Every structure is written in structure tokens, then in C-alpha cells.
Amino acid sequence: MKKEKVQERIIRVASELFYRQGFNSTGINQIIAEADIAIGSLYNHFSSKNDLLQAYLIKQEVEWFKGFEEHSVKISDAAEKILSLVDYRKKLQQSSKFAGCHFIKIVAEVGDSSSAVSDFARQHKDKQKEMIRTLVNEYAESKKNIDTDILTEQIFLLIEGAVVTSTISKNADSFDLIQKMIKAQLS
């Protein structure tokens, strides 16, 4: 296993802290201590805590899409790939102990105080929706009379709702329910 670079370690530690305890509740000194680095090392890589926040968001986005690609790589059927997205989001929620979506959490915490953060999160959700739209369009090629825009919105909103519901309820039941709802839409 290759040795983790200092910049990667800083981002990993900050990511864990931002997600677990929140951006505002995480101090630079805690990041430095838990990453086991000198203060100068942090500032050699990031000019501010906000720069570190941007790196965190980029890391989460890359990992999200890469994770879904790896999760669904062997699935060729568009309907099955859509259903695998539900499984993927369920798996993410379970592995985080139902801690929620990184992007929803950071927007809820930072809000309008940072347009860069809210814009990034919005663009991330738009990319997710476009990925769903691509799968829905692929699915609809062999079907008649499907409103792909409505179906895309329904799937996107069902999944996002399941993430929020499972975060609150601390269980995955909402994913099982939307899996059935989406299957019904695709049949």
C-alpha cells in the first residue's frame, strides 16, 4: 500500500470531521492534530478552511460517481441500473450509519453564507439528476409514451426523499419502499 501524501491525509481527516461533526464545529487546530501535521503543512496545501471545504466537496463528488460506477459496472440493462442506484444510495446510508448526504448537510449548515458551496452542491445534484436522465432515456428507447422528464424527476425526488427519511429514521426502509415504487414505474 502506498504511503498517503500529506495533502491527501489533510483532506481525508477534514472530510471525516466535516461529515461527522460539521464544518463550523471543526477547527483548524483539530484537523492539524488529527492529521498529525505541522500548521505550516496545512497552509502549504490550503490557504484557508474554505479552501479545504472546497477540496472536501470535490473529493465527495468524485467518490460518489466513482462509487456508483463501480457498484453498477456489470449491469447493462437501464432499468436494472436505475434500481441499482437505489441500492447504491441505500448502501451509502447504511455505511455512514444513516448520517445523511454530504451535500445536503453542508448546505444546511453553511446555507447562503457561501454561494460557492451552495452552487457546488446544486451542481452536484444536477449531475446526479442528469445521470438518472441518461438512464431513463436509455430505458425509454424501447418503450412508448414515456415522459422521460417526469420519470427522471420522480426517480430523483424519490431517492433524495429516501436519503432524508432514512437519515431521520435511522433505517433503510424508505429505500425498500421506493425500490418498489420505481419498479412499478418501470414496468
Account of the protein in words:
- Helices cover 77% and strands 0% of the residues.
- It has two domains: 47 residues, Homeodomain-like (Arc Repressor Mutant, subunit A), CATH 1.10.10.60; 129 residues, Tetracycline Repressor, domain 2 (Orthogonal Bundle), CATH 1.10.357.10.
- The protein is an all-alpha fold.
- It is elongated.
- Helix 1 packs across helix 2.
- The model has no long low-confidence stretch (mean pLDDT 94).
User: What's the CATH class label of the largest domain?
Assistant: Mainly Alpha
Q: How many independent structural domains?
A: 2
Number of helices: 9
What's the rounded overall pLDDT mean? 94
Q: Would you identify the CATH architecture of the largest domain?
A: Orthogonal Bundle
Strand content: under 5%
State the total count of DSSP E strands: 0
Rg, nearest Å: 19 Å
Within CATH, the superfamily of the largest domain carries the name Tetracycline Repressor, domain 2
Shape: elongated
Cα end-to-end separation: 46 Å
Structure classification: mainly alpha
Give me the CATH fold name of the largest domain.
Tetracycline Repressor, domain 2
The major β-sheet equals: none
Helix-residue proportion: over 70%
Low-confidence stretches: none
What are the secondary-structure elements, in order, as H or E?
A: HHHHHHHHH
Give me the oligomer status.
single chain
